[in-house]
Write a structure and sequence with these properties.
Length: 291
């Protein structure tokens, strides 16, 4: 294990649940508003749609939050979606939003933890895990992946996003500069755990130092290793917006005209699959198959 655990699994899950209970609407807005946020959301949706297809029977969505990607998953599912989240408020919000859509595959709304899934072995055709859920599992991320490997059928699909040390540090500096905190953070990078994140990929829970979560960052290689231990084989990976993830003007200009926007999306997808760019955007997506 990298770094020292600062919370027990139960304490960590309770902390995450309580935190997200009070920010459901903020989570919905995380992928809406300015063009940069829409870009990040759209690239995730396109990656998900490309791999999920339209022939899955039972799809597990772990950590749906307020349901930002649930509708995309539902359109690709023939029989049933099982949405599992720690936060009851998030599940209620997601249920309210998806309920406004035309009748499609039914959704089971389940309050629970990814490390303790209420499913029998090999009963799920695909698992979708967006929102950096594995990262939030911190030191228990490998256990969460093992649990997903237990419930996904052979040849079943796994799609998830992850935060990397490089991409997360870029975003941290970008936000810090906007809030006029960058000089302070660079003056004492050890205090803000920048050095530790870059060296070990691990951030302990320390809210007085802007570390509101116990968090584990992954490189693509580390994700592939953990997936292999859980019984998955990764076959596709893509950085999320390595060109414009933190360049507000690029996305804003492209958003003004449909053809320009589509060309930016295609450019991001091409660049995002190059090995040198996999960890430089707003996190990265991985698709894997259960062996």
């Amino acid at each position: 294990m990298v770094g020292a655990r600062t919370q027990t699994p139960r304490q960590r899950r309770r902390h995450v649940r309580r935190s997200f209970e009070g920010r459901v609407e903020a989570e919905w807005g995380r992928y809406a508003g300015n063009a940069q946020r829409v870009l990040r959301r759209t690239l995730r949706e396109r990656f998900l749609t490309r791999h999920l297809g339209r022939s899955r029977d039972i799809v597990l969505e772990l950590g749906p939050g307020p349901g930002r990607f649930t509708s995309v998953i539902r359109r690709s599912t023939r029989t049933r979606v099982a949405a599992v989240d720690l936060s009851l408020a998030s599940l209620r919000s997601a249920r309210r939003r998806t309920g406004r859509q035309p009748a499609r595959a039914p959704i089971d709304w389940i309050q629970g933890a990814g490390e303790l899934l209420p499913f029998r072995n090999r009963t799920v055709d695909a698992a979708v895990v967006l929102g950096n859920i594995v990262n939030f599992a911190a030191a228990d991320g490998p256990a969460l992946l093992q649990e997903l490997g237990r419930v996904v059928k052979r040849q079943g699909l796994f799609v998830a996003d992850f935060a990397s040390p490089a991409g997360a540090t870029h975003e941290f500096f970008h936000v810090a500069a906007q809030r006029r905190l960058l000089r302070r953070i660079l003056r004492r990078p050890d205090w803000y755990f920048v050095d530790q994140v870059l060296r070990t990929g691990y951030q302990p829970y320390a809210p007085t130092r802007l570390a509101r979560w116990e968090f584990r960052f992954y490189t693509v290689g580390e994700v592939e290793e953990e997936l292999a231990r859980a019984g998955f084989r990764a076959f596709d990976a893509m950085s999320i917006a390595p060109v414009a993830a933190f360049e507000d003007r690029v996305a804003a200009i492209a958003r003004r005209e449909p053809r320009t926007w589509e060309n930016l999306l295609r450019t991001e997808e091409k660049v995002g699959r190059r090995v040198g760019a996999l960890e430089t955007g707003h996190g990265f997506m991985v698709a894997a198959v259960r062996r």
